[in-house]
Amino acid sequence: MLAAFTGVKVLDLSRLLPGPFCSMLLADFGADVIKIEDPNGGDYIRGWPPFLGKNSGYHVVLNRNKRSLTLNLKKPEAKDIFKQLVAEADVVLEGFRPGVMDRLGLGFKELQAINPRLIYCAITGYGTDGPRAQRAGHDINYLALNGVLSYSGREGSPTFPGVQVADLGGGALYAAFSIAAALFARERLGKGQFIDMSMADGALTWHCLRWGKYLADSTVPSQGDDFLNHGYACYNLYMTRDGRFMSLGALEPQFWKVFCQAVGRPDWNQPSYFEPGPHQKDLQNQVADLFLSKDLTEWTQLFADKDCCCEPVLNLDEVMQDEQVQQRNMVVNLIHESWGAYRQLGIAPKLSLTPGTLRSHAPELGEHTDEILTEMGMALATLEEFRAGGVI
User: Which of 167, 201, 226, 368 is catalytic?
Assistant: First the structure.
């Protein structure tokens, strides 16, 4: 069964998280992703502990289904090899600061001249233009500067989520979508294009609900000010007697009614439960006191057959054991000849005709260098010369 991106060749120069997550999505659905790494250490994330065997756990998850080719792009011979690869490639993906590839002589204009059908995607912090284009940044900075952190968390102090919203949601996912869109457009237009993907721009669009509210009421969002932001009792996190937490998301009247009945507080089921005002703080305190009366397991059992959107906050180990997660194949048990048994993340989109697959483990640094270069017609003697000269 063919995968959605079977036949698509991606040259991935990116490192760390945003780019590799993007190319992982493409690889999961059949793209031949060639991870191009510097011979001296490769992707920085390879060195981040803890390790599975000699490989970082981060690398193991992010770089499955890919092949690794080492090229020292500061060497003319390596640049020539890269250009030969570009001639047959569909996508180039990189995550350098704007201008780095141009200075190497491998920017979009140079590569498009070699292959007019090439799609070139650059994931950057702030985009290729504007006053911050050359400024260093990380997920926390992008979320700070685009306002997401300003109203995240409870009153008193902004907080940031444990997952990387800008890196993954603002950068990687948008980049994968844009590459798919550009591939689709190429079928009609016959040529490739440049994708300027800013993680800050991408995460800015995650304001969509609060943006709409601000347009309507001109009130600048703040912590704890809204029904989706710790402001209402019906949509909040509550500590249990054993120090765990339950998530309550009973926004709609039918869910709130069932919740109130389940906990023996029908008096809470008033129209004011979904109205702003000082009474929300009082109701939150009452609900908080209620949840402190039982352990997490007791609450989970109580709400197991109640249709009111109340669920336990699970830790990652519990998530991996969760029946729903298992049933959806979001935890996949694999065995590597060196690392041994491990659990890999599953593939989220379930395509009925062209599903994604886990075909190979994350590669060792340069594991496929000889394979890829011999596919290009290079002799083994030439490869040895390149290796001795630090080209590969």
Answer: 167
> What is the maximum span of the chain, computed from C-alpha positions, in angstroms?
83
Q: What is the mean pLDDT of each run of 10 residues along the chain (392 residues)?
A: 93 98 98 97 96 94 98 98 98 98 98 98 98 97 96 88 97 98 98 98 97 96 94 98 98 98 98 96 98 98 98 98 97 94 97 96 97 96 97 98
Residues in contact with 125: Cβ distance below 8 Å, sequence separation at least 6, in sequence order: 132, 135, 136, 137, 141, 142, 198, 199, 200
Burial 370-382 (b: 16+ CB within 10 A, else e): bebbeeeebeeee
Query: Which is nearest to 14 in space by CA: 1, 2, 4, 25?
Result: 25
Tokens 């969509």 identify what position? Answer: 208
CA distance 142 to 384: 44
The token pair at 4 is 């959605």
Sheet with strand 235-239: strands edge to edge:
235-239, 245-249, 310-312
167 classed as catalytic: yes
State which amino acid sits at residue 205: T
Q: Does the active-site annotation cover 59?
A: no
CB atoms within 10 A of CB 358: 16
- Tell me the whole-structure pTM to 2 decimals: 0.96
Cα–Cα distance, 340 to 258 (Å, whole number): 47
Domain ranges of the chain: 9-205+332-388, 245-312
DSSP string, 203-245: HHGGGHHHHHHHHHH-PPP-TT-STTTT-STTEEEEE-TTS-E
Look at residues 56, 128, 124, 118 and name the one whose alpha carbon lies nearest to residue 91.
Answer: 118
Gap between the Cα atoms of 191 and 48, Å rounded: 39
Q: At residue 347, what is the residue type?
A: I
Asked whether 181 and 150 are in contact (CB, 8 A), the reply is: no
Tokens standing for 54? 């000699």
The residue whose two tokens read 């970082």 is 56
What is the CATH number assigned to the segment(s) 9-205+332-388?
3.40.50.10540
- ∠ CA 361-366-371, nearest 5°, is 85
